[in-house]
Amino acid sequence: MEAMNTRMVDFNRIKAEHKRIDEMCQNWAMWVRVRPQSFVNPMFRQYRSNAWQWHKPEYRHTCDTIEAQEMEKLMRHLPKHIRDSIVWAYVVRSSPAHARSVLGCTYADLGEYIHQGRAMLCDLWARHHQQA
């Protein structure tokens, strides 16, 4: 068990140089995230709500699918433990304790893997666009 006096890790802290790659990772996460399919009782399968009459439609952010696919290609170049940390931070978003137990690392290591992953993605993105 970790000592009680370990420093707290802020998993939401993003370094200034990683702002753009963070936006790209969020875009990638919207593209890659799988939403569970809800079960509809057969009795209500053909039901259509008239709720649109009283509520304004909600607009959701769309993702840039081309950029998301490029990010997916870059993800495969990351080491497995760093890739898994990035997937946890952006796609899975479960508790840090669960991620820590699955990845077999400390909270500090998990935070460091996420920062290293963003830095690696920045470098990979820059190299990829220099070649193009």
Low-confidence parts: 1-5
Shape: globular
The CATH topology of one domain is what? Arc Repressor Mutant, subunit A
Number of helices: 5
The Rg value, from CA coordinates, equals: 19 Å
Level-1 CATH class name of one domain: Mainly Alpha
Structural class: mainly alpha
CATH architecture grouping of one domain? Orthogonal Bundle
Main pleated-sheet profile: none
Instruction: Determine the fraction of residues in helical runs and give it as a percent range.
Output: 40-55%
Record field, number of beta strands: 0
**Overall mean confidence score, pLDDT:** 84
**Gap between N and C termini, in Å?**
48 Å
Q: Work out the strand percent.
A: under 5%
What letter string, H or E per element, gives the SSE order? Answer: HHHHH
Short description, anyone?
With 132 residues, the protein is mainly alpha-helical. It has helices spanning 19-32, 65-75, 80-92, 96-103, 107-131.
Keywords:
single chain, 132 residues, mainly alpha, Arc Repressor Mutant, subunit A, 0% strand
Task: Give an account of the 3D structure.
This protein is an all-alpha fold. It has a domain of about 90 residues: Arc Repressor Mutant, subunit A (Orthogonal Bundle), CATH 1.10.10. The longest helix is centred in the last third of the chain and has 25 residues. The N terminus is likely disordered.
Summarize the SSE layout with pairings.
Elements: H1 19-32, H2 65-75, H3 80-92, H4 96-103, H5 107-131
